[in-house]
Structure formats: structure tokens, C-alpha cells
Amino acid sequence: MTFPLNRRRFLATAACSLAAPALMTPALAQTPNRQNYVVPPEHAPQMVRLRDEFAPGQILVDPNTFYLYWTMEDREALRFIVGVGRGNLYESGKFRVGAKKEWPSWTPTKEMIARNPGQYAQWANGMPGGPTNPLGARALYLFDDRRGDTFLRIHGTPDPWTVGSAVSNGCVRLVNDHIIQLYDLVPMDAPVTLYPKTAPAA
Fold it and tell me: Do 61 and 76 meet the contact criterion of CB atoms below 8 Å apart?
């Protein structure tokens, strides 16, 4: 997949700071209590100004900085911190929002079950939506012209401490409060670009 725009062209600067927050937190070394976990202030959505012009009303995901951008008028965007697919499970490309669901049910793919049957086989027939469902409070379903439903999602998570890391089975995850905010902004058929991962600098 080739991209006419280099991802560096849309990297944004916040009005108050040019420094990105530390994204990999010590909380990942343990499993925090879901009831007691507090999302850090630096993970709150931010209005940022883009360096270049993008059509408003699209989602741009940079897996290298763990940021998702919802583009707006006058080179502005709303920026969210996200988690992305680990290793080669991340898929870059151009997609569109083909479905939207509140408190969606979840069914692991056959590939997920094959990789980890102990964790996923029990849900082969699906898990109802709810607070512990891996898709969280909302989900945007990514489609393309060749496959239709790609089984990639932009969704919430019951484990908010995992955003800012490459930990998922391929989907893009947000804190539940953040996906609710994004979900209300994004219409059906909105374009989505998942930019490629780049090799870390030497």
C-alpha cells in the first residue's frame, strides 16, 4: 500500500507544548484495577493545529506516535492517544467507516483463536457487549472496497492503561470516554488512513 502523503506532513503541535507525553507507562508492567484506574491528564484529547491542509472529516492514525487525529476546518484536528496492533498484526491502509455500534458484541477471529486458544476459544460464538467486552463502549468498523468488512476496528477498551502501546490484535483502541466522543463526531463512510509503522531510529 502506498501513501501520497508522508505521515510527517500531518504531525501536529499543541498550543501549549511541543513535547509528546511519555506513552509507555509503568502501569503496563502490572494489571491495574479497572475500578480504580485514573486516566492521566496528558492522555486527554487535545485540539492541535496541523502543519498541512487535510480535508475535514477524516481519521488519521499514526502508529509510531500512538495518536489518532480527527481532522477539522482550518488545519485543526482533535487528537486522541490510542493503542495499536502489536508486531505484524498492525495493518496499514486506507479504509472507510462501514458500520458503527454502541456497546458492540465481540467475536474473536479464527486467527486470534489459533494464536491463543486458551484465551479466545471460549468466545468463539461471541461475547455480548458490556463493560468487560474488549471492544468497549463504541466501535467503528473499517471496510475497504476489496474485502468489505476488514475485521479491523477503532474501538474502546475496558483496559485504558493499554493505550499508548502496541498491544492489540490489530485494531486501534481508545479509552472508553474518548471513543464515545469520537464516535459522536464520525459519520458513516468517513475515510480512515492507518499510516505504516516505521523502523525505530538507530
Answer: no
- 5 in a domain, yes or no? no
CA dist 63 and 68 (Å) reads 8
pLDDT, tens digit only, all 202 positions of the chain: 434 444 454 554 433 322 333 343 333 334 566 778 899 999 999 999 999 899 999 999 999 999 999 999 999 999 999 999 998 999 999 999 999 999 999 898 888 999 989 888 988 888 899 999 999 999 999 999 999 999 999 999 999 999 999 999 999 999 999 999 999 999 999 999 999 998 554 3
| Domain, as residue range, for 87 | 42-105+131-194
- What's the structural domain count of the chain? 1
In a domain, 28, yes or no: no
126 domain-assigned: no
pTM over 0.70: yes
Which residue numbers are catalytic? 155, 171
Contact predicate 56/73, CB 8 Å: yes
Q: Which helix (H) or strand (E) holds 179?
A: helix 176-185
Looking up residue 56, the CATH number of its domain turns out to be 2.40.440.10
